[in-house]
Design goal:
This protein is of the alpha/beta class and 338 residues long. Helix content is 36%, strand content 18%. The radius of gyration is 21 Å and the shape is elongated. It starts with a strand and ends with a helix.
């Protein structure tokens, strides 16, 4: 349930309610809005009803949350969240781009990719140091060595770093290098990992599972937020369907659905969503038009030589052209379509 406080509610009244909720053994999540405070109560339904908070001073109304995911729902917080990643805002009308290779392959490859990504105007450099590969014989990533190259690329370009963490044991290490932790599709329902990144305090990019429903995805986000970490961004990256021409089927309707169901920002990854570099431009444009808060794009200085995901990676020229197009489209939408 959500308690919406009166705009004039005093700090004392708010505190009284929180104490009452905690005494009943229930958890609170407080959202300080511009005009009013919202108190989310999580726990047993009967215990919540027994609190009879509606009658307490300072309470304007209570709103039941019918879904099992609560903290991430738009019932809990109607206003879209803006996630601040070390000064870069995701959500709230801007278009954020995360570009870079699938994997960090070498110092030279990554620094070259970072230069290109920066030149196109993206805000984040992506690149996996820990790669969850389908085959155990495929390149598995440079691990900590790769993280040091990401940090060096940040120092050289000013780009923020988003990189995947695949294992609870590596969360602290990856968090010590990255600005944002990525949870990949294969780990979307690794609940221990979700809790661990929730506790890390770092912003999290949560990719949609390979065949996850939107509700399952939001439940996964709830695990992170339930640890007190509200800085979660969702990333649609395509789902498994019967179609084989594309690697996945990019579900752009998820953008609109999530905007309705949740306050969390949503970005789209047309690279993994299609598996084909030729489809990255049209699907990027469609994602921006659909209202996505950003894009994740795989870019490689030389896709033909890439150790992973070369066929879906943009070469520098195609990436730079794409950035011009999406920026023009985003400006047009901001100016002409409200
Ligand atoms: C990636 O972003 O490199 C990646 C492995 O993506 P996904 O988890 O969406 O497959
Ligand atoms: Mn990839």
């Amino acid at each position: 349930m959500v308690i919406v406080m009166n705009p004039n509610a005093t700090g004392e009244q708010i505190k009284k309610i929180i104490v009452r909720v905690h005494k009943a053994g229930l958890k609170t999540h407080i959202v300080e809005g511009e005009f009013r405070t919202i108190i989310g109560i999580i726990g047993d339904k009967k215990a919540i009803m027994a609190l009879a908070v509606e009658a307490l001073e300072g309470v304007e109304k209570t709103v039941p949350i019918s879904s099992d995911y609560k903290l991430v729902s738009s019932d809990f917080q109607p206003k879209p969240s803006v996630i601040d990643v070390d000064g870069i805002k995701i959500g709230g009308g801007s278009l954020v781009v995360m570009g870079g290779p699938c994997a960090v392959e070498s110092r030279e490859q990554l620094l070259e990719a970072a230069k290109i990504v920066k030149a196109g105007g993206a805000q984040f450099l992506r690149g996996g140091a820990y790669k969850p590969r389908t085959s155990p014989y495929a390149f598995q990533g440079l691990e900590e060595e790769g993280l040091t190259y990401l940090a060096e690329a940040r120092a050289a370009t000013g780009l923020k770093i988003v990189t995947e963490v695949t294992d609870v044991a590596a969360v602290d290490l990856v968090a010590s290098y990255a600005d944002m932790l990525q949870i990949g599709a294969r780990n979307m329902q690794n609940f221990h990992l979700l809790r661990a990144v929730g506790r890390s305090g770092k912003p999290v990019l949560l990719k949609r599972g390979l065949s996850a429903t939107i509700a399952e995805w939001l439940h996964a986000a709830e695990y992170i937020v339930n640890e007190g970490n509200y800085n979660v961004v969702l990333c649609e990256r395509g789902i498994r369907t019967y179609e084989e021409y594309t690697r996945n089927t990019l579900d752009l309707s998820a953008v609109g659905a999530l905007k309705h169901l949740s306050h969390l920002p949503v970005i789209v990854d047309p690279s993994h969503g299609t598996g084909k570099w030729r489809l990255v431009r049209p699907m990027s444009m469609a994602a921006v038009a659909a209202g996505a808060d950003g894009l994740m794009i795989e870019v490689h200085p030389n896709p033909a030589e890439a150790l992973s995901d070369g066929p879906q990676s943009l070469n520098p020229d195609n990436y730079l052209a794409l950035m011009q197009d999406v920026q023009k489209l985003a400006e047009f939408l901001r100016a002409e379509v409200k």
